[in-house]
Amino acid sequence: MLFMEGGMAFEMNDNKLVESEKLSLLGLKPNELREIAVGCGLPAFVGKQLSDWLYSKKVKSLELMTNLSKAARRDLSAKFVIGCSEPVHRMSSVDGTVKYLYRTARGYVETVYIPDGQRATLCVSCQVGCKMGCKFCMTGRQGFVAQLSTAEILNQIYSLPERDSLTNIVFMGQGEPFDNLDNVLRATEVLTSEWGYGWSPKRITVSSVGLEKGLRRFLDESKCHLAISLHHPEPEKRAELMPAERAYSIRQVVNTLKNYDFCRKMPMADTAKQRRLSFEYIVFRGINDSRRHADSLIRLLDGLDCRINLIRFHSIPETPLQGTDEDSMVAFRDYLTSHGLFTTIRASRGQDIYAACGLLTTAQQEEDARESIG
User: Fold this and answer.
1) Residues of CATH 3.20.20.70 domain(s) within the chain?
2) Which architecture, in CATH terms, is 89-370?
3) Alpha carbon 200 to chain centroid distance?
4) What is the pLDDT of residue 364?
5) How far is CA 342 from each of CA 228, 307, 310, 322, 331, rounded to the nearest angstrom?
6) Helix pair 326-338, 291-300: axis angle to 10 deg
7) 365 Cβ partners below 8 Å, 6+ apart?
8) What is the DSSP string of 209-232?
Protein backbone atom coordinates (compact mmCIF):
# COMPACT_ATOMS: atom_id res chain seq x y z
CA MET A 1 0.00 0.00 0.00
CA LEU A 2 0.98 3.59 -0.51
CA PHE A 3 0.97 5.63 2.70
CA MET A 4 0.40 9.39 2.64
CA GLU A 5 1.80 11.72 5.26
CA GLY A 6 2.27 15.46 5.12
CA GLY A 7 2.02 15.54 1.33
CA MET A 8 4.72 12.85 0.96
CA ALA A 9 4.21 9.27 -0.17
CA PHE A 10 5.70 6.15 1.43
CA GLU A 11 5.57 2.42 0.70
CA MET A 12 6.72 -0.74 2.41
CA ASN A 13 10.16 -2.11 1.47
CA ASP A 14 11.72 -4.93 3.52
CA ASN A 15 9.16 -4.20 6.26
CA LYS A 16 10.25 -0.56 6.46
CA LEU A 17 8.57 2.59 5.23
CA VAL A 18 10.54 4.31 2.48
CA GLU A 19 9.71 7.40 0.48
CA SER A 20 7.91 6.64 -2.77
CA GLU A 21 7.22 8.65 -5.89
CA LYS A 22 3.84 6.95 -6.35
CA LEU A 23 0.62 8.66 -5.35
CA SER A 24 -2.68 7.19 -4.21
CA LEU A 25 -5.78 7.29 -6.41
CA LEU A 26 -8.23 6.48 -3.62
CA GLY A 27 -10.00 9.65 -2.53
CA LEU A 28 -9.51 11.55 -5.77
CA LYS A 29 -12.47 13.12 -7.57
CA PRO A 30 -13.43 12.42 -11.21
CA ASN A 31 -11.94 15.71 -12.47
CA GLU A 32 -8.68 14.93 -10.68
CA LEU A 33 -8.60 11.43 -12.13
CA ARG A 34 -9.22 12.91 -15.57
CA GLU A 35 -6.24 15.22 -15.12
CA ILE A 36 -4.12 12.22 -14.14
CA ALA A 37 -5.19 10.32 -17.23
CA VAL A 38 -4.41 13.24 -19.53
CA GLY A 39 -1.10 13.78 -17.75
CA CYS A 40 -0.16 10.19 -18.56
CA GLY A 41 -0.96 10.76 -22.23
CA LEU A 42 -4.26 8.88 -22.05
CA PRO A 43 -7.68 10.01 -23.31
CA ALA A 44 -9.70 12.11 -20.85
CA PHE A 45 -12.43 9.46 -20.62
CA VAL A 46 -9.96 7.16 -18.86
CA GLY A 47 -10.53 9.37 -15.80
CA LYS A 48 -14.16 8.23 -15.69
CA GLN A 49 -13.04 4.63 -16.08
CA LEU A 50 -10.65 5.05 -13.16
CA SER A 51 -13.44 6.51 -11.03
CA ASP A 52 -15.71 3.59 -11.91
CA TRP A 53 -13.05 1.02 -11.01
CA LEU A 54 -12.31 2.75 -7.72
CA TYR A 55 -15.75 3.57 -6.40
CA SER A 56 -18.15 1.18 -8.14
CA LYS A 57 -16.04 -1.93 -8.63
CA LYS A 58 -13.61 -1.19 -5.77
CA VAL A 59 -10.65 -2.99 -7.29
CA LYS A 60 -7.46 -3.36 -5.29
CA SER A 61 -4.95 -3.25 -8.13
CA LEU A 62 -4.50 -1.22 -11.28
CA GLU A 63 -3.85 -4.49 -13.09
CA LEU A 64 -7.52 -5.43 -12.55
CA MET A 65 -8.75 -2.43 -14.58
CA THR A 66 -9.27 -4.63 -17.62
CA ASN A 67 -10.92 -2.09 -19.91
CA LEU A 68 -7.66 -0.14 -19.88
CA SER A 69 -4.94 -1.26 -22.26
CA LYS A 70 -1.90 -3.03 -20.85
CA ALA A 71 0.18 -0.02 -21.83
CA ALA A 72 -2.17 2.36 -19.97
CA ARG A 73 -2.06 0.19 -16.87
CA ARG A 74 1.72 0.03 -17.09
CA ASP A 75 2.05 3.81 -17.40
CA LEU A 76 -0.36 4.45 -14.52
CA SER A 77 1.32 1.85 -12.29
CA ALA A 78 4.64 3.60 -12.73
CA LYS A 79 3.31 6.65 -10.87
CA PHE A 80 0.19 5.61 -8.98
CA VAL A 81 -1.31 2.95 -6.72
CA ILE A 82 -4.88 2.38 -5.55
CA GLY A 83 -3.89 3.23 -1.96
CA CYS A 84 -5.57 0.32 -0.19
CA SER A 85 -4.30 -2.39 2.14
CA GLU A 86 -5.85 -5.17 4.15
CA PRO A 87 -6.10 -4.92 7.95
CA VAL A 88 -3.09 -6.45 9.68
CA HIS A 89 -4.98 -7.81 12.68
CA ARG A 90 -8.53 -8.76 13.69
CA MET A 91 -10.14 -9.27 17.12
CA SER A 92 -13.68 -10.62 17.56
CA SER A 93 -15.96 -9.96 20.54
CA VAL A 94 -18.45 -12.38 22.05
CA ASP A 95 -21.19 -9.94 20.98
CA GLY A 96 -20.18 -10.04 17.28
CA THR A 97 -18.25 -6.77 17.25
CA VAL A 98 -14.98 -6.95 15.31
CA LYS A 99 -11.98 -4.66 15.78
CA TYR A 100 -9.52 -4.27 12.91
CA LEU A 101 -6.00 -2.87 13.00
CA TYR A 102 -4.73 -0.96 9.95
CA ARG A 103 -1.20 0.21 9.32
CA THR A 104 -0.69 3.73 7.97
CA ALA A 105 2.31 5.85 7.05
CA ARG A 106 2.91 7.00 10.62
CA GLY A 107 1.53 4.18 12.70
CA TYR A 108 -1.62 2.16 13.31
CA VAL A 109 -5.32 2.90 13.67
CA GLU A 110 -8.20 0.77 14.94
CA THR A 111 -11.57 0.45 13.22
CA VAL A 112 -14.62 -1.20 14.78
CA TYR A 113 -17.32 -3.12 12.89
CA ILE A 114 -20.59 -3.36 14.86
CA PRO A 115 -23.31 -5.66 13.47
CA ASP A 116 -26.77 -5.25 15.00
CA GLY A 117 -29.63 -7.10 13.32
CA GLN A 118 -30.34 -5.42 9.98
CA ARG A 119 -27.81 -2.65 10.74
CA ALA A 120 -24.05 -2.78 10.50
CA THR A 121 -22.08 0.25 11.65
CA LEU A 122 -18.41 0.99 11.13
CA CYS A 123 -16.60 3.25 13.57
CA VAL A 124 -13.69 4.80 11.66
CA SER A 125 -10.61 6.73 12.79
CA CYS A 126 -9.27 9.96 11.33
CA GLN A 127 -5.97 10.40 13.20
CA VAL A 128 -3.23 8.29 14.71
CA GLY A 129 -3.76 9.28 18.33
CA CYS A 130 -5.50 12.53 19.30
CA LYS A 131 -4.63 16.04 20.52
CA MET A 132 -7.72 16.59 22.69
CA GLY A 133 -6.46 14.82 25.82
CA CYS A 134 -9.87 13.85 27.26
CA LYS A 135 -9.32 12.30 30.69
CA PHE A 136 -11.64 9.33 30.06
CA CYS A 137 -10.23 8.28 26.65
CA MET A 138 -7.38 5.89 25.91
CA THR A 139 -6.76 7.54 22.54
CA GLY A 140 -6.25 10.84 24.36
CA ARG A 141 -3.72 9.11 26.61
CA GLN A 142 -1.83 8.03 23.50
CA GLY A 143 -1.32 11.62 22.38
CA PHE A 144 -1.24 12.87 18.82
CA VAL A 145 0.95 11.08 16.25
CA ALA A 146 -0.30 11.99 12.76
CA GLN A 147 -3.20 12.96 10.53
CA LEU A 148 -4.69 10.29 8.30
CA SER A 149 -4.85 11.05 4.59
CA THR A 150 -8.15 10.74 2.76
CA ALA A 151 -6.98 7.41 1.33
CA GLU A 152 -6.13 6.11 4.80
CA ILE A 153 -9.56 7.10 6.11
CA LEU A 154 -11.35 5.53 3.16
CA ASN A 155 -9.18 2.41 3.26
CA GLN A 156 -10.81 1.45 6.56
CA ILE A 157 -14.02 1.04 4.54
CA TYR A 158 -12.53 0.05 1.18
CA SER A 159 -10.56 -2.91 2.60
CA LEU A 160 -13.05 -3.97 5.27
CA PRO A 161 -14.00 -7.66 4.83
CA GLU A 162 -17.64 -6.83 5.74
CA ARG A 163 -17.71 -3.73 3.53
CA ASP A 164 -20.76 -4.73 1.52
CA SER A 165 -22.91 -5.25 4.64
CA LEU A 166 -22.40 -1.72 6.01
CA THR A 167 -25.46 0.44 6.60
CA ASN A 168 -23.89 3.27 8.64
CA ILE A 169 -20.54 4.92 9.30
CA VAL A 170 -19.62 6.95 12.37
CA PHE A 171 -16.48 9.05 12.69
CA MET A 172 -16.10 8.17 16.35
CA GLY A 173 -12.87 6.21 16.33
CA GLN A 174 -9.39 7.54 17.06
CA GLY A 175 -8.82 11.25 16.60
CA GLU A 176 -10.81 14.49 16.41
CA PRO A 177 -12.49 14.79 12.98
CA PHE A 178 -12.58 18.61 12.99
CA ASP A 179 -8.82 18.64 13.59
CA ASN A 180 -8.40 16.82 10.25
CA LEU A 181 -11.41 18.33 8.54
CA ASP A 182 -10.09 18.65 4.98
CA ASN A 183 -9.52 14.91 4.73
CA VAL A 184 -12.70 14.01 6.63
CA LEU A 185 -14.84 16.20 4.34
CA ARG A 186 -13.19 14.76 1.25
CA ALA A 187 -13.81 11.23 2.55
CA THR A 188 -17.49 11.96 3.22
CA GLU A 189 -17.78 13.53 -0.24
CA VAL A 190 -16.52 10.30 -1.79
CA LEU A 191 -19.00 8.33 0.31
CA THR A 192 -22.02 10.48 -0.56
CA SER A 193 -21.40 11.58 -4.17
CA GLU A 194 -23.12 9.90 -7.10
CA TRP A 195 -19.70 9.27 -8.64
CA GLY A 196 -18.51 7.75 -5.35
CA TYR A 197 -20.34 5.33 -3.07
CA GLY A 198 -23.66 7.11 -3.52
CA TRP A 199 -24.61 6.89 0.14
CA SER A 200 -27.17 9.18 1.72
CA PRO A 201 -25.54 11.62 4.18
CA LYS A 202 -28.09 10.30 6.70
CA ARG A 203 -26.01 7.13 6.93
CA ILE A 204 -22.96 9.02 8.22
CA THR A 205 -22.38 10.69 11.59
CA VAL A 206 -19.33 12.82 12.41
CA SER A 207 -18.46 13.38 16.07
CA SER A 208 -16.49 16.29 17.52
CA VAL A 209 -15.67 17.95 20.82
CA GLY A 210 -16.77 21.16 19.07
CA LEU A 211 -13.74 22.86 17.52
CA GLU A 212 -15.35 26.16 16.51
CA LYS A 213 -13.75 26.80 13.12
CA GLY A 214 -14.20 23.21 12.04
CA LEU A 215 -17.75 23.18 13.36
CA ARG A 216 -18.82 26.07 11.16
CA ARG A 217 -17.17 24.55 8.10
CA PHE A 218 -18.80 21.19 8.70
CA LEU A 219 -22.23 22.71 9.21
CA ASP A 220 -21.87 24.73 5.98
CA GLU A 221 -20.18 22.16 3.76
CA SER A 222 -21.62 18.81 4.82
CA LYS A 223 -25.08 17.29 5.14
CA CYS A 224 -23.99 14.42 7.39
CA HIS A 225 -25.32 14.02 10.92
CA LEU A 226 -23.43 15.75 13.73
CA ALA A 227 -22.65 14.43 17.21
CA ILE A 228 -21.08 16.69 19.83
CA SER A 229 -19.07 15.14 22.66
CA LEU A 230 -20.58 16.92 25.67
CA HIS A 231 -20.04 14.79 28.81
CA HIS A 232 -20.68 17.63 31.28
CA PRO A 233 -23.10 20.58 31.07
CA GLU A 234 -21.07 22.91 33.30
CA PRO A 235 -18.09 24.52 31.50
CA GLU A 236 -15.73 24.50 34.48
CA LYS A 237 -16.31 20.83 35.20
CA ARG A 238 -16.29 19.93 31.52
CA ALA A 239 -12.84 21.52 31.25
CA GLU A 240 -11.58 19.14 33.95
CA LEU A 241 -12.68 16.19 31.81
CA MET A 242 -12.03 17.73 28.40
CA PRO A 243 -9.20 20.29 28.15
CA ALA A 244 -10.59 21.45 24.77
CA GLU A 245 -13.38 23.21 26.69
CA ARG A 246 -10.92 25.96 27.63
CA ALA A 247 -10.50 26.90 23.97
CA TYR A 248 -13.88 25.79 22.60
CA SER A 249 -16.61 26.47 25.13
CA ILE A 250 -19.66 24.23 25.00
CA ARG A 251 -21.83 27.32 25.44
CA GLN A 252 -20.31 28.85 22.31
CA VAL A 253 -20.80 25.56 20.49
CA VAL A 254 -24.51 25.59 21.43
CA ASN A 255 -24.86 29.24 20.34
CA THR A 256 -23.30 28.38 16.97
CA LEU A 257 -25.65 25.44 16.50
CA LYS A 258 -28.68 27.66 17.12
CA ASN A 259 -27.82 29.57 13.93
CA TYR A 260 -28.66 26.51 11.81
CA ASP A 261 -32.22 25.49 11.01
CA PHE A 262 -31.74 21.74 11.39
CA CYS A 263 -30.43 22.27 14.93
CA ARG A 264 -33.33 24.43 16.12
CA LYS A 265 -36.73 23.37 17.35
CA MET A 266 -39.21 24.35 14.67
CA PRO A 267 -43.03 24.54 14.43
CA MET A 268 -44.73 21.21 13.85
CA ALA A 269 -45.24 21.98 10.16
CA ASP A 270 -41.50 22.28 9.62
CA THR A 271 -40.24 19.19 11.44
CA ALA A 272 -39.34 17.03 8.41
CA LYS A 273 -35.58 17.37 8.75
CA GLN A 274 -33.01 15.29 6.94
CA ARG A 275 -30.15 15.98 9.32
CA ARG A 276 -29.78 15.01 12.97
CA LEU A 277 -27.98 16.65 15.88
CA SER A 278 -27.02 14.58 18.90
CA PHE A 279 -24.91 14.96 22.02
CA GLU A 280 -22.72 12.21 23.45
CA TYR A 281 -22.72 11.99 27.24
CA ILE A 282 -20.58 9.48 29.14
CA VAL A 283 -22.16 9.10 32.58
CA PHE A 284 -19.72 9.20 35.53
CA ARG A 285 -20.68 8.36 39.10
CA GLY A 286 -20.90 11.49 41.21
CA ILE A 287 -19.48 13.66 38.42
CA ASN A 288 -22.32 14.33 36.00
CA ASP A 289 -25.21 12.02 36.92
CA SER A 290 -27.29 14.01 39.44
CA ARG A 291 -30.61 15.82 39.09
CA ARG A 292 -28.65 19.08 39.14
CA HIS A 293 -26.64 17.97 36.13
CA ALA A 294 -29.80 16.91 34.31
CA ASP A 295 -31.36 20.34 34.94
CA SER A 296 -28.18 22.02 33.68
CA LEU A 297 -28.35 19.94 30.51
CA ILE A 298 -31.96 20.92 29.95
CA ARG A 299 -31.10 24.61 30.30
CA LEU A 300 -27.97 24.37 28.14
CA LEU A 301 -29.74 22.66 25.25
CA ASP A 302 -32.98 24.60 25.44
CA GLY A 303 -34.17 25.49 21.95
CA LEU A 304 -32.16 22.80 20.15
CA ASP A 305 -33.77 19.94 18.25
CA CYS A 306 -31.45 17.19 19.41
CA ARG A 307 -31.11 13.87 21.15
CA ILE A 308 -28.86 12.77 24.01
CA ASN A 309 -26.94 9.49 23.83
CA LEU A 310 -25.96 8.30 27.29
CA ILE A 311 -22.83 6.15 27.23
CA ARG A 312 -21.52 3.77 29.87
CA PHE A 313 -18.02 4.56 31.09
CA HIS A 314 -15.47 1.80 30.53
CA SER A 315 -12.71 2.10 33.08
CA ILE A 316 -9.20 2.91 31.88
CA PRO A 317 -5.94 2.67 33.86
CA GLU A 318 -4.89 5.36 36.33
CA THR A 319 -8.15 7.27 36.55
CA PRO A 320 -10.42 7.91 39.56
CA LEU A 321 -13.45 8.11 37.25
CA GLN A 322 -16.15 5.49 37.67
CA GLY A 323 -19.24 4.68 35.68
CA THR A 324 -22.63 5.21 37.26
CA ASP A 325 -24.91 2.25 37.98
CA GLU A 326 -27.65 1.12 35.63
CA ASP A 327 -30.54 2.32 37.78
CA SER A 328 -29.07 5.81 37.94
CA MET A 329 -28.57 5.88 34.17
CA VAL A 330 -32.17 4.86 33.57
CA ALA A 331 -33.45 7.48 36.03
CA PHE A 332 -31.24 10.13 34.37
CA ARG A 333 -32.58 9.16 30.93
CA ASP A 334 -36.20 9.18 32.06
CA TYR A 335 -35.87 12.58 33.72
CA LEU A 336 -34.36 14.16 30.60
CA THR A 337 -36.97 12.58 28.35
CA SER A 338 -39.81 13.75 30.59
CA HIS A 339 -38.47 17.31 30.22
CA GLY A 340 -38.43 17.26 26.44
CA LEU A 341 -34.91 15.96 25.69
CA PHE A 342 -35.16 12.72 23.73
CA THR A 343 -32.56 10.51 25.45
CA THR A 344 -31.31 6.98 24.85
CA ILE A 345 -28.78 4.70 26.55
CA ARG A 346 -26.31 3.45 23.99
CA ALA A 347 -25.67 -0.28 24.04
CA SER A 348 -22.09 -1.08 24.98
CA ARG A 349 -20.37 -3.24 22.35
CA GLY A 350 -16.99 -4.92 22.12
CA GLN A 351 -15.82 -4.19 25.65
CA ASP A 352 -14.03 -7.56 25.92
CA ILE A 353 -11.76 -6.65 22.97
CA TYR A 354 -11.28 -3.02 24.04
CA ALA A 355 -13.43 -1.78 21.17
CA ALA A 356 -16.00 0.12 23.25
CA CYS A 357 -16.23 3.90 23.50
CA GLY A 358 -13.03 5.45 24.86
CA LEU A 359 -10.94 2.26 24.71
CA LEU A 360 -9.31 2.56 21.28
CA THR A 361 -5.55 2.99 21.36
CA THR A 362 -2.63 1.79 19.27
CA ALA A 363 0.07 3.00 21.65
CA GLN A 364 1.32 -0.56 22.29
CA GLN A 365 1.48 -1.34 18.57
CA GLU A 366 3.45 1.87 18.04
CA GLU A 367 5.91 0.84 20.74
CA ASP A 368 6.25 -2.69 19.35
CA ALA A 369 6.89 -1.31 15.85
CA ARG A 370 9.62 1.03 17.11
CA GLU A 371 11.31 -1.84 18.93
CA SER A 372 11.19 -4.10 15.87
CA ILE A 373 12.76 -1.40 13.67
CA GLY A 374 15.53 -0.67 15.91
Assistant:
1) 89-370
2) Alpha-Beta Barrel (3.20)
3) 16
4) 65
5) 15, 5, 11, 25, 13
6) 40
7) 101, 107, 108
8) S--HHHHHHHHHH--SEEEEE---
Quote the CA–CA distance of 93 and 354 in Å, as a whole number.
Answer: 9
Rounded Cα–Cα distance for residues 63 and 70 (Å) = 8
Distances (CA, A) of 228 to 72, 131, 143, 237, 332: 46, 16, 21, 17, 19
On the question of pLDDT at 239 being above 80, the answer is yes
* Across 238-242, average pLDDT: 96
Q: What is the CATH number of domain 2-83?
A: 1.10.150.530
Residues in Cβ contact with 22 at an 8 Å cutoff, skipping those fewer than 6 apart: 2, 9, 11, 79, 80, 81
Q: Is 249 exposed, middle or buried (0-12, 13-18, 19+ CB in 10 A)?
A: middle
Is residue 20 very low, low, confident or very high in pLDDT (cuts 50, 70, 90)? low
Entry pTM: 0.91
**What mean pLDDT value characterizes the chain?**
90
Phi and psi dihedrals of 347, rounded to 5?
-65, 135
Q: Assess whether pLDDT exceeds 90 at residue 123.
A: yes
**Is residue 272 packed enough to be buried (19+ CB in 10 Å), middle (13-18) or exposed (0-12)?**
exposed
Rounded Cα distance, 237 and 25, in Å: 45
Residues tagged active-site? 110, 357
Of the listed ranges 170-179, 305-314, 317-326, the least confidently predicted one is: 317-326
